[in-house]
Amino acid sequence: MSIEWGRGRWAAGHITHGAGSTIIKAIRHYLTKGPCQPVLNDFPLSYFSEKSRRFRSNWYIGRKWLEYSIDKDAVFCFYCYLFGRQDVAKQGGGETFVTKGFKLWNQVANLDSHVRGVNSAHSQAVKKGEDLLKEKQHIQNKHDYRVQLNAIVDCIRFLLCRGLAFRGYDESQCSSDKGNFLELVQFLGDHNESINEVLQTAPKNCKLTHPEIQKDIVNAIASETSKAIIKDLDNGFFSILVDESRDISVKEQMSLVLRYVNKKGTIIERFLGIVHVASTTALSLKCAIECLLCEHNLSLSNLRGQGYDGISNMQGDINGLKTLILKENKSAFYVHCFAHQLQLTFVAVAKNHINIVEFFYVRRNALRDAQFVKIKEDLENGIRRSGQDLNQETNLKRPGDIQSLLTEVSSFCTTHDIFILNMDETFVVSGRSRRKTQQKTNLHHYRVELFYTVIDMQLQELNNHFSKANTDLLLCMACLNPSNSFVAFNKEKLIHLAKFYPSDFLRIDILALDSQLQNYIFDMHSNDFFLELQEVSELAEKLVSTRKHETYPLVYLLVKLVLTLPVATATVERSFSAMKYTKNELRNRMGDRWMNDCLIVYIEKDVAYNIDNETMMQRFQNMKTHRRQL
Question: Which superkingdom (predicted)?
């Protein structure tokens, strides 16, 4: 393709055929320049029947299509030359304005006859030219809109991942505090010229700063974050961790977390969402859980564990939440949060053993008095101490380590005038003795009557908190522990463990598992990569990295099922901490959907940061019809 530039006409030559897109670009550029309409002091004279005539520049008026060629002293049709060469040729006299050029200056009326009606070849050519220019503007608008939306998404994602508020008290243009969102958008524009230009020239009805637009973009980001989590789950087995709490507006909220093992063999716990529940009955919670799982195309048939904090409406054996779910899926084993069980055990012992209450009450008072004196001295001397200033022993791994700690404690007590009991002296019972009792030393009393008794009570309480099924499950799970070169391995118990999952291990699978376990343990003992492992989680990752999970698929399935079982509900508890940070006293009017979207991105910010803006923008565009398109 070539464009020949002449003195008078922009393209007095011709446009030859070439690549389609290149021709369109050239024509669009030609249209942008417009028709050549030079204004000369003296146009060349032409003679008609001994009368001289010349072209006049006022003939341009009202004829935007007209262009004049100085070289040929003729006029042409700007649009017909570009778009209607073949069609105009069929129109009487039309070809003159395309190839030869019109120069009959004594017949100026023929200029207007070229235009003809709205359906003429000339009118169609004009329309094509206008459409092509509009297309250029449309392309520019699309580019500007993409830049604008990309900047808005960046700002919104930043605020979400930091858990910050969006709105301001006064969002007017003259306000000095328009809120985090508008201020951040302005800040970004101030430090990027191209973004600032797009933001300033954006139509007033497409600024993308309206609160409803903000909520739509937030929902798009949250939806893509959840989608990435579900994709990582890859239609595999999962457990649910559920808890409930009230937000700042005293609305009951139920939080749900997924626990699963990903393709790399890593244990993952991800926040799926938070739902307002009008009632905290087991049936209401079950319906809310099913709706949330259904929303993300997750089925209860893939559920392999339930983790709650032990409230009666959840762990009840008759109508509790765990029982309702177990009726639909017998493999969805309930595991009471270990942290709560341990805490309940300590509380029960503390309440039921009078010697424990008295012992810690006396010791606490003595320590409190000593600390009060010391703190008072520090405050008077202007000294501030932190917990890091004290000598803290946290890794007592050897029996002898306790002796050094005991020496430090004794020194501390002596320094602060705290009474130290002589363990070899005779134990004196408080109060007046009514009868003679066998004398015993302080050491015997605290070791046998206090310490050993407490240990027995704790063991009994722990046994009470574990059902027989859970106990059998945990004992079998321990056989997968790789520590000390798989010393805990027991093939019979692992086969028994597989029978807890009849839907995953059919009868033929049990027979195959027997053979795989035999080869598996031999392989583990002879493979240096597995000898230093300490945890089942490390074993799963190592099996995947060495591709042994393909060699022993049933063994790996057993490992995955074990790791999928919930251990503690700490992740759910943290989601409520995030809720209190996000929906605080200043943001107590947040709607449920808005809060849920904000929490998903805030809690799973590592997932949200790895999603590209294009994906989020496409999600936003597909949510509803917008004034502009990408």
Answer: Eukaryota
Residue written as token pair 């407490």: 454
Mean pLDDT in runs of 10 for the chain (630 residues)? 40 45 76 87 86 89 90 89 70 74 86 82 84 71 89 96 90 85 94 92 87 95 97 95 93 96 96 94 93 95 88 70 91 75 64 63 53 59 46 50 79 84 78 65 83 79 68 86 92 94 93 95 92 92 95 96 88 93 92 96 96 95 73
Residues 223, 297: Cα–Cα separation, whole Å: 13
Which amino acid, residue 317?
D
User: 3-class secondary structure for 531-599?
Assistant: CCCCCHHHHHHHHHHCCHHHHCHHHHHHHHHHHHCCCCCHHHHHHHHHHHHHCCHHHCCCCHHHHHHHH
Query: Residues 503, 508, 513, 514: is their CA dihedral positive or negative?
Result: positive
C-alpha 32/C-alpha 360 separation (Å) is 89
User: Token match 């002879």: residue?
Assistant: 526
* Rounded CA separation 394/349 (Å): 24
CA 507 to chain centre: 41
- In the chain, where the domains are located: 20-116, 468-564
Helix (H) / strand (E) element for 263: namely none
